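Morning. Coffee machine broken again, so started the prediction first thing and wrote up yesterday's gels while waiting. Chain of 253 residues, entered below exactly as on the submission form.
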Amino acid sequence: MKTLYMPPSIKHFEPLHMVFSTWVDHLPFGYDLVTALRPKMLVELGTHKGLSYFTFCQAMKENDIDGVCYAVDTFEGDAHTDKYDESVFNAVNNHNRQHYHGFSYLMRMFFEDALKHFDDDSIELLHIDGFHTYEAVSADFANWYPKVKPGGIILFHDVMARLQDFGAWKFWDETRGQHETFTFNHGFGLGVLRKPGGDRSNDHPLLKLLFEDAKADDGAGLRSFYVHASKHLENTRKLKRLTQGQPQQQPAS
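Came back before lunch.
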C-alpha cells in the first residue's frame, strides 16, 4: 500500500536564516527529515554560513524535539570556499545564541579533533559537508561512521557536483551500491544513507518513502515532490521580497 505523507515543510516552514548556499535546494527535505527522525543527537560536519544547520535546528525547535545539535567547523574556509574572515563565525554564533541557545553548540575545530567528543553509536543524524575532494569525503565517512547509531541517517551534500576537484560524486557512486541509500539529483545533489540495524517497526512515513516505497518507482515521485517543494519555497520567498520591496538574490554555488 502506498505511504501517505503530508510534509510539515509545506504546511508551516519558513526559513529564519537565509544565506548564499546551494543547500537552498534541499531546505524542505532537511526540515522534514529532522521532523521525521526526531534525533536525540544531530551533528553537522562543515557548516560555513549555517544554512543547512539552522534549518535542522529550526525543525528541532518548532517541532519540540528533545535533542542536541552540534556544528563542527573551523569557520576559516578552505580551498573550495576560499578563506573567510571572522565575520562568518560571528554571524553564525550570533544567530545560534539568539534562536537555539540551550540545545545547539558550535564546535570550532577540525573534524578529527571532534571525534573524541562523541561515543560510538550515538548520532542519529550526521551531515557530511566539509572539504569535497574524494579523499576528504572518504575519510570523513570512515572516521564518523562508527559514531552513527544503527538505523541512523548520514547525509552527503554535493553528490552531483562534478566541478573543480570535487569528489563527493565519485565516493557516492561507489558507496550507494553497498548501503541502503536514496539520492536527490536536483541542485548539487544530496545523498541519504541509512546505517544497518535499529528498530524499524515504527518507521516514520518519510523513511518508508525513502527506503521502501522508492523501490517501486525508483524514487521518481519523491524526487519530483522535493524539486517542486524547493521551487515553491523559492517562489514564496520571492513574492515576500517583492511585496516588501526588497531586491531579489540568487544563491551562490
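The chain has one domain: 13-244. Going to sketch it on the whiteboard this afternoon.
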